[in-house]
Design a protein that fits this description.
The complex is a heterodimer. By secondary structure, chain A is mainly alpha-helical. Chain A is 75% helix and 0% strand. Chain A has a single domain, classed as MetI-like fold (Orthogonal Bundle), CATH 1.10.3720.10. Chain A contains eleven helices and no strands. By secondary structure, chain B is mainly alpha-helical. Chain B is built from 13 helices and no strands. The longest helix of chain B has 35 residues. Chain B is globular. The two termini of chain B are 43 Å apart. The chains are: A mainly alpha, B mainly alpha. Chains A and B meet through helix 1, helix 4, helix 5, helix 6 and helix 8 of A and helix 1, helix 4, helix 5, helix 6 and helix 7 of B. Chain A: One of its GO terms (biological process) is transmembrane transport. Chain A: Keywords: Cell membrane, Membrane, Transmembrane, Transmembrane helix, Transport. Chain A: This is Raffinose/stachyose/melibiose transport system permease protein.
Chain lengths: 286, 274
Amino acid sequence: MKNRSLSFWLFLTPVILGLGIVVVIPFIYGLFYSFTDWNGITANNFLGFENYIRLFQEDEFMNSIWFTIKFAVVTVLLLNVFGLGLALLVTRNMKSNNLMRTIFFMPNLIGGLILGFIWQFIFISVFGDVAGLTGIEGLSGWLSTTGTGFWGLVILTAWQMAGYIMIIYIAYLENVPKELIEASKIDGASALQRFKNVIFPLVAPAFTVSMFLTLSMSFKIYDQNLSLTAGGPFNSTQMVAMEIVRTAFSDREMAYAQAKAVIFFLIVAVIALTQVYYNKKREVDV
Amino acid sequence: MKKNNEKRNTRLLEVFGLLLALLWLSPFYLMVVNAFKTKRGIFEGVLGIPEEFTFENFVKAFIELEFLKSLFNSVLITGLSILIIILFSSMAGYALARNKSKLSGAMFFVFVAAMLIPFQSVMIPLVAIFGQVDMLNAAGLIFMYLGFGCSLSIFLYHGAMTGISHSLDEAAIIDGANRFQTFWYIIFPLLKPISVTVAILNTIWIWNDYLLPSLVLSEANATIPLKMFYFFGQYTKQWHLALAGLTIAIIPVIIGYFFAQKQIIDGVSEGAVK
């Protein structure tokens, strides 16, 4: 198909319009409006970097960034440990392999909003009941403090997404040649040695993939945040995505919210580009 | 001796795995079991089976959620979005893969690079623009899903095209077919496996999406997640009703998963690893 041919452009018109109107134009508009006093309809004044200076001085926004970073670090670690653990478990020669995969993956298919509501019940009512029955003080009053809200979000996310990371590790584990495993067994390697010296180096690419995938997923979380803690108590468990939505649609400070959205884009883009860089570097090494 | 040990270890591991799977399912157990209790029943204890089963919660939640209407809205919006994403992304993937020019490569790069932009970074201007042309409705929402869904889909179709030989196109053109006929009758059927993957990956996020519909749709056209949010807000702390509503909302997903487990897991695996 040639550039000049009509059919080439006809084949591309729908997606060019789709991506252009929905993503590219709003993105450019947003970038421009973040330097003004835009209220969603008109912009009267050009403010330069005023919105950006203001957001770096706002405690609530900076708190939400720190909260999100802490959440992302803990969640990425847990998700990869669980994901790899589950994958190693269900790739062994067992009858109930498929059943286990099906169950571990299931929470992924249900929306974060609904899962957050279910866990709200568990953290408040079920934990409360268990605290009453066993006398474990630490189980009562969950989600009412910043700390328990944080761990609540971590537990919910780890439970929901571990099955997804498991699927990624399975794909790599099943590519490890059976002969290599057999050979290491014949040579008398223990299970631990086998994992460290044979399996691990072969699934190393899976680590890069899932590390960055989980990192960008945990940065963009919104639904779970809204339904589990709604940011409370006192907006202390509010993550960046939610902070932006609130600034825009509750406070109705559109230009200011858009400046936060631009910063959010920069953070997410840096994460993704670092991944691309590492992937390229690895390809060269191999 | 060593063989026996290994067998026993595997057996032990399997028991551990099954117990872990039960723990994984426990939130769903707690949801369902308490949805059958009365308000008093929940007050008396949340762990056990209800002493007296009640279906009233489900009846009330079903009515309050306007479940059939919300289900219809969800099916309609997700279904139409998937259809146009599959049709238009496969066409684009085909055109970009069969044109080796710099322009084509640059356009492919733009589509892939757009995946870097998180939703929240374009959401505010997007809603403002669509609001000004009066398109904050179901049709506008479906168009937005095309915009957000096409990047990954084009990427997957583009990758799949490398496995389809040029000679097929050429044979069809020599036989007198035009580009559209070639695509529709020769290429598109061969892309079916990747179309299944594209359909599954997009269905998962569009079906469950809350934020975008909450900004675009009125309450009358609410999808299941949106309606669930309103419903939950209305019945905070009335867990017997809230849990019955959540159970109902999950049922369509569980049914879908039951029938298409293998395709779903394979599709997700394919989408994630590429």
